[in-house]
Amino acid sequence: MSETGTVEQLVARSKAAQEQFAFVTQEQADAAARSVCKIVYDNAERLGVMAAEETRMGSAADKITKCRMKSSLIWESIKNEKTVGVINRLKDKQMLEIAKPLGAVACIIPSTNPVVTPMCNAAFALKTRNSVIFAPHPRAVECTKLLVEMFRGELAKFGFPEDLVLGLEKVSIEDSSRLMSLSDVVVATGGPAMVKAAYSSGKPSLGVGQGNVQCIVDTDADLSAAAEKILIGRSFDNGLICLGEQTVFVPENDFLAFIEEIKKHGGYYLESAEQVEKLREGIFPEGGAMNRDVVGLTAEQVGKVIGIEVPAKAKAIVAKADGIGREDVLCREKLCPVLTVYPYQTFEEGVAMMVENLDYEGKGHSIAIHSNTPEHVEYAAIQCAVSRVVVNQPAGTTGGGSPTNGFTATTTLGCGSWGNNSFSGNLSHTHFMNITRVGYPLEDSYLPDPELAWK
Q1: pTM: predicted TM-score of the whole model, two decimal places
Q2: Which domains does the chain have, with CATH numbers?
Q3: Among all residues, which ones are annotated catalytic?
Q4: What is the pLDDT of residues 232-285, one digit of tens each?
Q5: Which of 221, 255, 278, 395 is most buried (most C-beta within 10 Å)?
């Protein structure tokens, strides 16, 4: 990924490069950020296939789509943003806001997103005049190595220091921990253990929480449209996306009709209790950790592993849960195209069930709502401790930013204090800047009478 060196040497090189880049112009920062997004866009097929083959997870076709869409969406979202010099003049407060870089950013890369996550991190970092060092996942070392080479090659074309992008040579917990402790800032995208390690590194950290997206279908929703969108979100990249719908709550009176729509749109519904139990035991053996052998497989492949015959064209395996929250392990996050459904009597009851599932796992992340009643949407948004509420869209493909909504385009999703994260919302370039604020005297400044505050 770079010339061989210790973690200490890599960080020193990264910081030296960042110091050279710290006072470039806005146009230069933009050129660097654009280049890493464009190289992924131009090489989407190669990188998408490579990511699927090396990690042995997910869909190559979906990863290609993700490379193309995320690269263009992320660049589109940041290309006109000011990140150099004075970025805001607050005339009413007589203040200026000046952007400053953070320094060398350590980026922990997940196996589920080994191309677009480093691309996103690098684009945000370069846009704001930082440097990045990637710590690859053991299942995506070659993918990360190729990306680093590509990014460095693009930087060299502009005469920028190539060491603005580096990657760890060795993949180990020790080296990743050392990197986090030596860098200026940490961005950790991965499992709870890695995120916890980032927050324990002693450096400012931006980590993500665990997903378990709960979805509710309202009585006034179009069942066919809802079923189609839910299956799109659940099956994209073979269910690896943390934004993918996990459990769907459906009005009791519409439950059977909804299941028929699920079947029409490619869901394979398990009719018998024996099949559901086989699914439960196959995904979470003995009620414990998720079976790693099914992560990122197609619905048909998941069926083969757990002993259920599933049609080749099935988008997802769908099963009715036996209980809510800790009553049924199928209410947990499932990193494969498996969807749980459950009926509710009133909308309020359905929302309460979502809350219970989120308390079990996924608090702070996201929910999805299919409804034409704004009051219901707002009720669910108020009741659920989440950072994103996706309305009438496939959560799995739009919650991280989409042309169909206003969510910030990103690959890293904060879950706030609910998910033990330092931020809630979608990671953006603004998280990669320090802000210096300059305050002038107000033209009408005065010494206030403290009593006026209470009137």
Answers
A1: 0.95
A2: 7-208+424-438 (3.40.605.10), 213-401 (3.40.309.10)
A3: 242
A4: 999 999 999 999 999 999 999 999 999 999 999 999 999 999 999 999 999 999
A5: 395
